[in-house]
Automatic annotation (TrEMBL):
Gene3D superfamilies: Allene oxide cyclase-like
UniProt organism field: Linum tenue
Pfam families in UniProt: Dirigent
TM spans (from-to): 12-29
An annotated GO cellular component: apoplast
Record's subunit section: Homodimer.
Main localisation: secreted
Keyword Oxidoreductase tagged: no
Organism taxonomic ancestry: Eukaryota, Viridiplantae, Streptophyta, Embryophyta, Tracheophyta
The protein's name in its UniProt record: Dirigent protein
GO process terms (BP): phenylpropanoid biosynthetic process
Record's keyword terms, sorted: Apoplast, Membrane, Secreted, Transmembrane, Transmembrane helix
Family matches, as PANTHER family: NUCLEOPORIN-RELATED (PTHR21495)
Source superkingdom: Eukaryota
Purpose of the protein: Dirigent proteins impart stereoselectivity on the phenoxy radical-coupling reaction, yielding optically active lignans from two molecules of coniferyl alcohol in the biosynthesis of lignans, flavonolignans, and alkaloids and thus plays a central role in plant secondary metabolism.
Length: 184
């Protein structure tokens, strides 16, 4: 019968920590530039969404047979809409993505959007917004989960407030966005 070594009780913990350090260091990517400090950027803009008329910027890709009733969330449940919404005032970018009705009990969308900026300091950069959007709740918060260009490795949040909504048709909506992005 083999004799086991008399190891201190915390031996497994020490070995695990050493393995963790060795494993973690394998994923450090060498760089020729010095480390950049993280910045916080605040963006404020209005998102215009138009789902009707000759200049619609968002269209349902699986329209339901029954009519939509904004007072009845179940009438929208499962509807998926694709959007490419440029701003109607001074254009600073476009919101490209999709949202789908994700609740049978309240008017709430699951949103996946890329905000592509075409003007100003961040021209050519984009950030990604993801989350649950209960559209009749003011304010509401969604997550920023990444980006490109100046917003590479970004994270943060967006505070949304419905500024205007055509309650008869739900076709035209303007939403105020206050976006806070941490990036390098």
């Amino acid at each position: 019968m083999a004799k086991t070594a008399n190891l201190p009780p915390n031996h497994f913990l020490i070995v695990s920590i050493i393995q963790l350090v060795i494993f973690s260091s394998a994923f450090i990517i060498p760089t020729t530039t010095s480390a950049k400090l993280e910045k916080l950027t605040h963006l404020h803009f209005y998102y215009h969404n138009n789902i009707a008329g000759p200049h619609a910027t968002a269209v349902p890709i699986n329209p339901k047979i029954q009519p939509v009733d904004l007072r009845d969330p179940a009438s929208l449940f499962g509807r998926l809409t694709i959007a490419d919404d440029p701003e109607n005032s001074t254009v600073v970018g476009s919101a490209q993505g999709m949202y789908g009705s994700a609740s049978q009990t309240e008017m709430s969308f699951a949103m996946v959007f890329n905000f592509a900026l075409t003007q100003g300091k961040y021209k050519g950069s984009s950030f990604c917004l993801l989350g649950r959007n209960p559209i009749f709740t003011n304010p509401r918060e969604l997550a920023i989960v990444g980006g490109t260009g100046a917003f590479r490795f970004s994270r943060g949040y967006a505070i949304l407030k419905t500024y205007y909504m055509d309650m008869q048709t739900g076709a035209n909506t303007i939403v105020e966005y206050d976006v806070y992005i941490r990036h390098y």
